[in-house]
Amino acid sequence: MTDRHIFHDHTTLVVRSLRGLVAAHPYLNLIPSLKVVYRADHDRSKVSLICGGGSGHEPGTTGFVGQGLLSASAAGDVFASPSAKQVGAAIKAVPSDKGTILIITN
Q: What is the layout of strands, in order, in the sheet containing 48-53?
């Protein structure tokens, strides 16, 4: 019987996607164990904007991390919100002297 799946282990799909995004954009960093993408060049003199959400079709909010957009993104598992530990890691990754705004979409 042939296998109909491209990836045989669904537990690695989100991290694989995030690694690909970070590899294509040198201004991004990744904390793989927590699925947090953040700007490597974050300016702590500006407000940090962090979004988090599930990874149903893709870790969607991570595509908005960049200049003039999000400072970081915490990707939950497929159809699940990020945990408090993940959001905390995103906050620590992009510290701000002006404050942090959290947008959690799930």
A: 28-31, 36-39, 72-75, 48-53, 100-104
